[in-house]
Amino acid sequence: MRTASPGPVAGRTWTPVTVVNAGVAFALEMGLLAALCYWGVRTGRSVPAKILLAVGAPALAATVWGLFLAAGGPKFPLPTAATIVLKLLVLGTAPLALVATGRPVLAAVFGGLAVISVAVEYTVH
Question: Per-block average pLDDT, block size 10, for the chain (125 residues)?
């Protein structure tokens, strides 16, 4: 089955690998938001700071993702190489946040899955 939507899924032939990877990618996106929220709660020194960081960090990541990386068609499409780099940078904030909150094993797993998922997304057809 081919899709007609723009973005990294445009013209993709869906195979079991790409379907599973799409699920993993979505889980990583949700995990990114959760990790940034957790970081904000753990990092803030006062209740207002905790709330601001816990809401602001995921909101910033979601905004960047929506503008430049959304699978359904980003508002501002980038060249493929720039998209890959930006996607890894945005997803890379989650492992950094997890390490900063004392979760290095979870950070390593998340980072590894992110790299594998992006590699599969742009190489497996």
Answer: 46 85 96 98 96 98 96 89 97 98 98 97 86
Residue whose C-alpha is closest to residue 39's, from 29, 24, 52, 25: 52
pTM above 0.85, yes or no: yes
Closest CA to 96 of 82, 111, 85, 86: 111
> How confident is the model at residue 73, as a pLDDT?
81
CB-based contact 17:120 (threshold 8 Å): yes
92-100 — which CB contacts under 8 Å span 24+ positions?
93/32, 93/35, 93/36, 93/57, 93/61, 94/28, 94/31, 94/32, 94/35, 94/36, 95/35, 97/35, 97/36, 97/38, 97/39, 97/57, 98/35, 98/38, 98/39, 100/39, 100/42, 100/43
